[in-house]
Amino acid sequence: xxxxxxxxxxxxxxxxxxxxxxxxxxxxxxxxxxxxxxxxxxxxxxxxxxxxxxxxxxxxxxxxxxxxxxxxxxxxxxxxxxxxxxxxxxxxxxxxxxxxxxxxxxxxxxxxxxxxxxxxxxxxxxxxxxxxxxxxxxxxxxxxxxxxxxxxxxxxxxxxxxxxxxxxxxxxxxxxxxxxxxxxxxxxxxxxxxxxxxxxxxxxxxxxxxxxxxxxxxxxxxxxxxxxxxxxxxxxxxxxxxxxxxxxxxxxxxxxxxxxxxxxxxxxxxxxxxxxxxxxxxxxxxxxxxxxxxxxxxxxxxxxxxxxxxxxxxxxxxxxxxxxxxxxxxxxxxxxxxxxxxxxxxxxxxxxxxxxxxxxxxxxxxxxxxxxxxxxxxxxxxxxxxxxxxxxxxxxxxxxxxxxxxxxxxxxxxxxxxxxxxxxxxxxxxxxxxxxxxxxxxxxxxxxxxxxxxx
Length: 455
Description:
By secondary structure, the chain is α+β, with helices and mostly antiparallel strands. The protein folds into 3 domains: 41-174, no CATH class; 184-319, no CATH class; 334-440, Sandwich (Immunoglobulin-like), CATH 2.60.40. The chain has helices at residues 2-30, 84-95, 161-167, 171-174, 221-233, 242-253, 306-312, 316-319, 362-374, 429-440, 449-454; strands at residues 41-44, 50-57, 60-66, 72-76, 96-98, 101-104, 120-126, 131-139, 145-150, 156-160, 189-194, 197-203, 209-213, 217-218, 256-265, 268-276, 291-295, 301-304, 334-339, 342-349, 352-355, 358-359, 377-381, 388-396, 401-410, 413-418, 424-427. The chain has a 9-stranded antiparallel β-sheet with strand order 22-21-20-19-24-25-26-27-23, covered by helices on one side. Strand 2 (50-57) and strand 3 form a beta hairpin. Helix 5 (221-233) runs antiparallel to helix 7 (306-312). The chain is elongated, with a radius of gyration of 36 Å.
């Protein structure tokens, strides 16, 4: 009986194993196959196989062609720079296109679906020279979709409205809308002429923006980057009518020049001229200002916003660095102070501040660091510095950056200058007094009373 029971159990196990094997085999065979009710694919082409896409709407044709460097170019109706993101979006839409449903397996009358003379045709050319042509016809009677088919394929499908929208484009949809096409990462020089001043910006050895002209000066990197952002984000409106374009050109001719900017990267120099149209209304406000721009990178005159016009209408002092110290939020490694005849030096060792062999009170040092970091000019001067009564030297950046600032007083006015720099900064008297106070209040570290008792 026992043997018989074991035999039955073995047979049951074998049957179960066979069932599992068969189930797994069937599942594997289904892998990679679409579901029975899945919408049929109309197009499926790997994106890297695309070489050219032609969109034809009636007699109007837009042709995008991929160059050897992988970037898309507009070749028809005329050569233009391309918005690469827009081109990639089109390719993505074409590479894998599903239908909503199959309408007819073998359509006899294409005119019924608006496919005999389609309003939209997209011709795809692959790298190997093979072509496929997608035709899009009338909207479906129920709305929300359109009839479509591949040229040479008898089947007629419906596709969602958004599928047609993704393909129903003209060259203006793919045109690079930037007025300046420089590469921000490779920008080496920026020039700006505004407010009767000419300025030039370049980068120093620390990759920081500095003023090169009218003379070498420290620049506020944040303000220079903001200028670059405004130039980079300046865009044209491709939906402007031909009539408005002519109007813009006429108004630009009689408008006052606000600023001229030049950018230079590895590909060369581009220029943007911005002008402000005359306000015709007597009660016109600043928000009503109208600006136009002309670029060397693209054709035409373009209306631009106040963000660009006002952003370029800046003078030299708007871009100068008002901070006396550049160490920013990096931690100084050494601070040396001279206030009159009193001197002090503090060196950071690990997480402790030392003066000689004495540990100093960290909150007091931090207060001094904060006042040095915040010390800023309220005005730039050409002369007036007398004899320094206060001096601060800050070492930071692993010892690579040493900044020395001297402060003098003339009457009720305070002036400062940085070592080896010609610029003179006027300071707020209260800020100087607070700095002196912070320097005088740095004390030796006092351990807690319970710590003293343990000793």
